[in-house]
Amino acid sequence: MHLTTKIQRTILLIFVVLTVACAGNKGPHNITLNYIEYNRGKSFPTHSDIQLDWNGNSMRFENVRFEDESFFPDNSIIPNAFIKPLSRLKFGDALKAFTEPYYGYRFIHFFRSNPHIGVGIEFTHHKIFLNQPTQSVKISGTYNGNPLDKNGAVGDYIDYLSVSHGVNHLSFLFSYRWLLGPTAAIPEGRMQPYISAGLGPAIPHLELKLKENAPAWNDYSYQSGISNYNLGLGLGMRYKFSPHFGCYLEYKLSYSHLYDLTFDDGAGELRMAFTNHHLMWGLSYIF
Q: Across the beta sheet with 219-222, what order do the strands follow?
């Protein structure tokens, strides 16, 4: 089974277990306490230093620009990936639209004793691509035994580099919400602005190929490790249009610390860290 499928199934299983454990847990005045949410979204271009160490070489590339391609391969939110295969009755292909290219899902439980405060778990899949190998950056270190300290093109040494099957954040969330606009049907309020903070492991999928005089391999692998982790801060607005369904819009700032990346069967090491701005929109099932 493909590892990304295993990750998705594991997270979904966790959501099911949490859902069953929290089922029927209503707060005072029938306030709903549990939220299962799915989102699409967009991250934005970012910059990162890159440290490469292999075969006696040690190179640092400073402030390298990465693109997000958040709608790849459609360059649209859903239409080509979902509506077209659905119209052709290709249901399996249509379902894949919900796991490509930027997506996320989460479970949040708010406490009976204080329904403003919640905790949960979230999975977010976003990507970064080195799409401008001709960009000039500061390069330092040693290469083939010669010292380096110059400005040059990244593509002179790196053929391609991306984390395109996902930076893949698995986060444990803390959330605080405000309950505004209560009605008889929705006593906790239709409008729920909120803030959130999360942390947890990152499970990046490295794709890397170096230029000439480098090992003759293409590295494609999911990698985990204690130095691959993420932090995130979110600010959003949730709207309940019925007691059990809602939608939300959220801005998130995330930090990805990817220092446990290896290549060439573990003989080489790559380290990078970057922040991302995200805009996410999604649907909520509430109970």
A: 128-129, 158-163, 205-210, 219-222
Please, which pLDDT band fits residue 23 given cuts at 50, 70 and 90? Answer: very low
Number of domains in the chain: 1
Task: Provide the 8-state DSSP code for 115.
Answer: T
Is 32 a domain residue? no
The single-letter code of the amino acid at 201 is P
Residue 145 lies in a domain: yes
Domain residues for 7?
A: 3-22+42-115+125-178+196-225+238-286
Mean model confidence pLDDT for the chain: 87
Q: Is residue 190 part of a domain?
A: no
Predicted local confidence at residue 15, as pLDDT:
53
DSSP for residue 185: S
Residue 27 lies in a domain: no
- In sequence order, which residues have a C-beta less than 8 Å from that of residue 33 and are 6 or more positions away? 22, 25, 26, 27, 109, 110, 111, 112, 115, 118
Per DSSP, what are the bridge partners of residue 102? none
List the Cα angle 273/151/271 in 5-degree steps: 20
Q: Which of 217, 229, 285, 254 is nearest to 43 (CA)?
A: 254
pLDDT at 157: 94
62-74: pLDDT as tens digits: 999 999 989 876 6
User: Do β-strands 146-153 and 191-201 pair in parallel, antiparallel, or remain unpaired?
Assistant: unpaired
DSSP string, 125-143: E--EE---TT-EEEEEEEE
Q: What residues contact residue 28 under an 8 Å CB cut-off, 6+ apart?
A: 112, 115
What are the Cα distances from residue 140, in Å, to 137, 147, 153? 10, 8, 12
Long-range contacts formed by 21-27: CB under 8 A, 24+ apart:
22/109, 23/287, 25/109, 25/112, 26/112, 27/110, 27/111, 27/112, 27/115
